[in-house]
Amino acid sequence: TTCCEKRHVRKPGGLKLTVALVYTQEFGRKLIGPQEEVKKATVILNPAASRGKANSLFEKNAAPILHLAGVEIKVVKTDYEGQAKKLMEFMEQTDMLIVAGGDGTLQEVITGLLRRTDEEAFSKTPIGFIPLGSHNSLSQSLHLVTDNRVKCITSATLSILKGETLPLDVLQIKGDKEQPVFALLGLRWGSFRDVASSISKYWYLGPLKTQAAHWFSTLWEWPQTRHASLTYLPPVPRPPDLPAEKLSRPNLLYRIYRRLQNYWNPPVEEPPADEEPAHWEEKQISTLELTICTHNRNPVKRRPDDSLVLSVEPDTVGIGQFIRDGTKKAEEPLVCTDNAVQTEASVCHLNLPREGAGFYDIDNEEFEAMPVEVRLLPRKLRFFCSKERREELAHAN
């Protein structure tokens, strides 16, 4: 071993990357047949993510693995906020789409993808997520949870090369005038969200800044209730999964017999049954915070219905409980408290006051709050997921 190699191993995360590169060579050594094409991947990279460190993190930890695997890589770097949505309008078909950034980059990419006129076909492209941002909420659903940044990036990159995918639900969030926005995790509106957006102003208080932000907010306004109207439809039963194995085709004599039988005795078509009108439930809410989420925090868990989850936080807590709950939600924004009232639905309409509605957080990105329709698109996109994380989620409660 040379001195150079020793220094590389001693570097934090260097050993993990070295092992990943060796493992990746297995993909690169595979022979490509004369009729077989090299797999192509388009990477949407936000170099400004993680305070400008994303480009360096990608080049050092993810790019070498992708190149060694024999995949033809096309890297497209964004220059400004919102550009990823525009890039998706003109992107050509690819074998796989890789998002290298954080929550904001991922939200922009899926929004641009699902706004395309050919989104029905394009949404079948498998998507990989390499967590390079300050917030990488979806990473916990796809990759092993670790505090080691390099290990997280290399693990995510390897899961893309291994090719195992997982279907994820999508929320379509649409106002009266604006184009729809799409989310993988959820929408958040209320006082906890508002306080969380101001925490960084109290940086000089160090570890007490989160509690201080919530306490100071109660001096300006208390109680911090939000009022809105919700109408929603119940969840839709989930259709059965298709059989893993394709059924064998009946023999020729049986097919001829069935055709003759249908010719001489054609089946009688029954008139379509009258569809029952949709029964909308309506609810007036007074809450500290409302969240509308997917089940993508654990996409492996089997559920009988396709649904989104409406969580209404109670508005009857005291100041001390408000500070404690807000501190927890600052770390996990979409996790509701034990006293929240939850309802499952397939689609909901959220009607807000005309003035002073504030802002939403949609997958940790800020949007102006307005009346919206939130509709579930079940299993709309497929994401690369590590086998180890899938097994962990399958055994989780």
Automatic annotation (TrEMBL):
> What keywords does the record list, in alphabetical order?
ATP-binding, Kinase, Lipid metabolism, Membrane, Mitochondrion, Mitochondrion inner membrane, Nucleotide-binding, Transferase
Instruction: Identify which cofactors the protein needs according to its UniProt entry.
Output: Mg(2+)
The identity of this protein, by name, is: Acylglycerol kinase, mitochondrial
Q: Which GO terms describe its biological process?
A: ceramide biosynthetic process; sphingosine biosynthetic process
Quote the InterPro entries the UniProt record gives.
AGK_C, ATP-NAD_kinase_N, Diacylglycerol_kinase_cat_dom, Lipid_Phosphate_FormReg, NAD/diacylglycerol_kinase_sf
Q: Name one GO molecular function term.
A: ATP-dependent diacylglycerol kinase activity
Record-stated family: Belongs to the AGK family.
What sequence ranges are listed for the domain DAGKc? Answer: 36-177
Record's subcellular location? Mitochondrion inner membrane; Mitochondrion intermembrane space
Topology in the lipid bilayer is annotated as: Peripheral membrane protein
> Is Ribosomal protein among the key words of this record?
no
Per the record, what are the reactions this protein catalyses? a 1,2-diacyl-sn-glycerol + ATP = a 1,2-diacyl-sn-glycero-3-phosphate + ADP + H(+); 1-(9Z-octadecenoyl)-sn-glycerol + ATP = 1-(9Z-octadecenoyl)-sn-glycero-3-phosphate + ADP + H(+); 2-(5Z,8Z,11Z,14Z-eicosatetraenoyl)-glycerol + ATP = 2-(5Z,8Z,11Z,14Z-eicosatetraenoyl)-sn-glycero-3-phosphate + ADP + H(+); an N-acylsphing-4-enine + ATP = an N-acylsphing-4-enine 1-phosphate + ADP + H(+)
Q: Which GO terms describe its cellular component?
A: mitochondrial inner membrane; mitochondrial intermembrane space
Q: Superkingdom, according to UniProt?
A: Eukaryota
Question: What are the EC numbers?
Answer: 2.7.1.107, 2.7.1.138, 2.7.1.94
So, what pathway does this thing act in? Lipid metabolism; glycerolipid metabolism
Q: Does the keyword Lipid metabolism apply?
A: yes
